[in-house]
Amino acid sequence: MLDVPPARRGLLGATAHRLDVSKPNQHDTKAEFLAEKVAVEAAAEHGRALFEILAGQFREGSDQRGVSERLSDFIDASENQGGLTRRPDTPVDLVLQNAKAVGFTFTLVLALYHVPGSSRAKARACKSGGDLLEPKAPAPNHYARAIALRLAKLIARHTGERPTLGTSSESNHPSTDCGRAVEDLFKVLGIKAQFRNAAKWAIDQLTDEDLAPEEPIGSLLGTRDNLGFSTGRPIQRFRLSKPC
């Protein structure tokens, strides 16, 4: 069995590589399904566009840098009109005040970083779940598939290789790490489904994007490393201060 802590808020694991074990949302109608599909595709497209606009201020030599700087300066000035001296009464107040202290648009860039990728992943999940809407097709165990796919993606991102699936010649048990992990995780979560079918389906859904290591935000901002800015503008304008 996997040595994992109890699920808390739909997540397993205490490190950065946590696994979402929550049940996927189901759609009552095709219209509801299509509406969500359109929404997540739009979020991927427009989230990336907004990120590119605001991140331009950090990219030395970018032809959008001047536009991005002026827009960000205006947004930051507008957000700072209320000042930073009022004592925060709620966690939301604290988050907003610290965002303003660090730089509102800079904070927004950091927040937007994962939106396009997460939205694309959700769009692919919607697409792969489309067979649930076909009345002639037998409905698969959608939760089993979702868990197997999330685990396969986690393994692929961690190893940089596509997981494999096999069965021991001496028994009916899985012979690969991915197969054993899916089987054990199904037992932990109480999923009554054939892990092989779900694992095979999940591996077939993986793309080259799933095998690539996570790109540090610094590379998207045109800097040397994750948050070691080299352009000067972020360190001058967004100097980290003590929490309010």
Brief overview:
This protein is mostly helical and 244 residues long. The protein has eleven helices and two strands, in the order E-E-H-H-H-H-H-H-H-H-H-H-H. Residues 1-16 and 223-244 have low confidence and may be disordered.
Can you walk me through this structure?
This protein is mainly alpha-helical and 244 residues long. The protein has two domains: 28-134 and 215-244, no CATH class; 140-213, no CATH class. It contains eleven helices and two strands; from the N terminus they run ββααααααααααα. The protein has a two-stranded antiparallel ribbon. A hairpin with a 6-residue loop joins β1 (11-12) and β2 (19-20). The relative contact order is 0.13.
Notable traits:
single chain; 244 residues; mainly alpha; two-stranded antiparallel ribbon; 2 strands; elongated
Strand residues, percent = under 5%
Give the helix/strand class: mainly alpha
Mean pLDDT: 74
Unreliable runs: 1-16, 223-244
| Form type | elongated
Q: Mind telling me the C-alpha Rg?
A: 22 Å
Which H/E pattern describes the elements? Answer: EEHHHHHHHHHHH
Q: What is the strand arrangement across the widest sheet?
A: 1-2
| Total number of strands | 2
Helix content: 40-55%
- Termini distance? 45 Å
Number of helices: 11
Summarize the biggest pleated sheet.
2 strands, antiparallel
How would the blueprint of this fold be written?
Elements (H helix, E strand, L loop, with lengths): L10 E2 L6 E2 L9 H26 L9 H15 L11 H12 L1 H9 L2 H14 L13 H18 L17 H13 L5 H11 L2 H4 L5 H4 L12 H5 L7
Antiparallel strand pairs: 1-2
